[in-house]
Amino acid sequence: MSDNAGKEQGLQAGTPVPWRGIWVAAERTGERAADVTLELLAKARVLGDKLGAPLAAVLIGYHVDGLAGELIGHGADQVLVVDHPELASFTEEAYGGVLAGLALKYRPEIILAGATLMGRAYIPRAATILETGLTADCMDLDIDPKDRVLLQTRPAWGGNLFATIVCPLRRPQMATVRPHVFKKVLPDPARQGEIVSISPEAEWLEHRLRVVESVKDDAGDECRLYGAKVIVVAGRGVEHEKDMALVKELAGLLGGAVGGTRPIVDQGWLPERLQIGQSGVTVSPRLYIGLGVSGAVQHVAGIKDSEIIVAVNKDPDAPIFDLSTYGLVGNVGLILPELIRQIRLEKTGRVV
Amino acid sequence: MPLNIVVCIKQVPDARTVRFDAEKGTIIREGVDAVINPVDLNALEAGLSLKDALGGEVTAISMGPPQAVEALRETIAMGVDKGVLLSDRSFAGSDTLATTYILAKGIEMLGRFDVVICGKQSMDGDTAQVGPGLAVRLGLPSVAYVKEITVLNDGGLFRFRRETDSGYDVVEVEPPFLVTVPPLLNTPRLPSLKGKMRAKKADITIYNANDIKADLKKIGFEGSPTRVVSTAVHAFNARKEMLSGTVEEQVRALIGRLKEAGLL
């Protein structure tokens, strides 16, 4: 495939680009389309309209065609479905091979995918097969309809720098985009679209990985940090283990996930996988609430891309306040219950 | 079964010493220490513990400027057998696509390899693209975000637990393969005294573009399809507002702000 790609590429500046249309590589959450896929369709619709280009969703898996209607309702003109038993479980090789194979056959000018764990595991394989550029983890996209070049803005250096990246001479232009960056639109059930079933070529499906077991992590309040919209983080200022229940309660009220700093994990109050920071998980929620988090460099490196940072700390000079959007000075033991009380009041109109 | 293990590492500026030039929108490089990309230490530990269990050889390979030799020396102090640096002026400006090409050409120079391990992403680039892309170049299956490694059949088969968006998968694959590892996989060992002595004297192999027979169209700026058109220092909404008053008043003010932002 890569030899073939080489021949078809090598565009020169100024020559007409034969690649047309925008694709969104769809992902599933259970039986539904993943939020990030719907968010991308909304954004890709806008980009496609600017270009006058059609928008297709690419659906790879087994028994997945039930999702096609949802994708059309959210803006896709076309759904390209590759449905095959070999695709029942996710493997980087087969998913990357199918996406690259499709792209060589149908020649889209842009392919967007979620910067999820899955997207970031297989999209780079597809881009390498296609010998084209890929920008990871974008937080903004725009397009110039004149040259049809996608402007891809992404954070670097733990969010300290933002870089705008282009791929002017090769196609497709590929990017993974973070969840929650774009807003999904309300679905239009009356929207019409075309469902195209494509049988994959054998070489697209080749893979050597055997998926023995696929386990859903339904740890409830310990829901997943990566991709979470709201994250409530416990730091050293959470003094008693029993207060962790309140931390989880607050996260639950906000529809968010719970994370912790190193000291909390070291005390065994949270499992290691919920440790946020340079040696743990890097997060980028819309809302980060740090409860008794001091703002050690190690931790801060993992939260800098958060949109709104709320810090609660009894020390008004805590470094976390240097990057917080809103700061509350006071004891976590007092502020946390009050936060829960007022949010409940807000939600239910009464004190429970 | 003894394995030939290759660990890819990158020398990066130490995050603790990096400063940013807000006007130019760039990193200030002066006075910055260079370190091994932190999660690459976890990749090294994974490689070294496989060698401890099964025997074989661990090679650390890196693409970078001549001074990246120091990073490779550090890996030898940890117990790595051999260090290889891919260094050439013409490599400068390589994006992830060109980087995977150069690394693959370098790894092919080593002869047989069974296991290739990469840290999941670098501190500076943060793309997580080099591992999976390199696997394609080497014709290998890749498994990203491996959280647990089990050796079966004396190294003839590997079982991994890897993180997914909805939980985890248990997957099996026979060597050769490439895996990328997250920071929480293990605790990297410290250099031993003996290792440090060995590192001082160790010969680090250095290959240039010619040595690895690189196609000049596929490396550096020319071989890189992506271009950075602008960079800017991100202005944090820092200390936008310290809420004041009693606990109840502060919380009420916060809730007002969160409602405005559409979060409540």
Query: Overall mean pLDDT score of chain A?
Result: 89
Gap between N and C termini of chain A, in Å?
62 Å
Helix content of chain B: 25-40%
Q: Rg of chain A to the nearest angstrom?
A: 22 Å
Protein described:
- By secondary structure, chain A is of the alpha/beta class.
- Chain A folds into two domains: about 1-205, 3-Layer(aba) Sandwich (Rossmann fold); about 220-345, TPP-binding domain (Rossmann fold, 3-Layer(aba) Sandwich), CATH 3.40.50.
- In chain A, about 30% of the residues lie in helices and about 25% in strands.
- In chain A, the strands form four sheets. In chain A, strands 7-11-6-1-4-5-12 form a seven-stranded parallel β-sheet, sandwiched between helices. In chain A, strands 15-14-16-17-18 form a five-stranded parallel β-sheet. A three-stranded antiparallel β-sheet of chain A has the order 8-9-10.
- The longest helix of chain A has 17 residues, at about 35-50.
- Chain A is elongated, with a radius of gyration of 22 Å.
- In chain B, α3 crosses α4.
- Chain B has helices spanning about 40-55, 70-80, 95-110, 130-140, 195-200, 245-260, and strands at about 5-10, 10-15, 20, 25-30, 35, 55-65, 80-85, 115-120, 140-145, 145-150, 155-165, 165-175, 175-180, 205, 225-235, 240-245.
- In chain B, the strands form four sheets. In chain B, strands 9-13-8-1-6-7-14 form a seven-stranded parallel β-sheet, with helices on both faces. A three-stranded antiparallel β-sheet of chain B has the order 10-11-12, with no helix packed on it.
- The mean pLDDT of chain B is about 95.
- Chain B has two domains: about 5-220, Rossmann fold; about 235-265.
- The termini of chain B are far apart.
- Chain B has six helices and 16 strands.
- Chain B has about 260 residues and is an alpha/beta fold.
- The chains are: A alpha/beta (about 350), B alpha/beta (about 260).
- β10 (about 160-165) of chain A pairs antiparallel with β15 of chain B.
